[in-house]
Amino acid sequence: xxxxxxxxxxxxxxxxxxxxxxxxxxxxxxxxxxxxxxxxxxxxxxxxxxxxxxxxxxxxxxxxxxxxxxxxxxxxxxxxxxxxxxxxxxxxxxxxxxxxxxxxxxxxxxxxxxxxxxxxxxxxxxxxxxxxxxx
Length: 135
Known about the structure:
- Helix content is 17%, strand content 39%.
- The protein is α/β, with parallel strands linked by helices.
- It has a four-stranded mixed beta sheet with strand order 1-4-3-2, with helices on one face.
- The radius of gyration is 16 Å and the shape is elongated.
- The relative contact order is 0.18.
- The model has no long low-confidence stretch (mean pLDDT 94).
C-alpha cells in the first residue's frame, strides 16, 4: 500500500497532557514531531500538530483552535495488545484514572484479560492481554 494511515486525535487545549500521559504509560510511545501555535494568538503554546507512534501505529494529535460541539466517542477506540500482564495492568490503571471504565479487566472468553476505558481526556482504549501461544 502506498498510503500513510494514521489515527487523528483532536483535543481542545490538552494535547500536550495527552502526549505526556501516553509517553508515561507506553514504553513504545514515541513523539516524532511537535509544532506549537506561535505566541500572541489565542492558542499560543498549544499543539498545532504532533506526530507520534505507539508501536507501529501512527498518530496525529492536535489542539483545535476552533471550539466544536463534539468530542471523542466510544465507538472508535485505540486497541492495544499486550503480552505482559504487568504492562497491561499499568496501562489500565493509568488510562482509567479519572476516566471512565466501560469494561473492567476480566476474562471475557476471547483473551486472557481485557479492559475497555476512556482516559481522562476522553480517548477510548481497548486493552487486551493476549493468551500465551499454544506449543
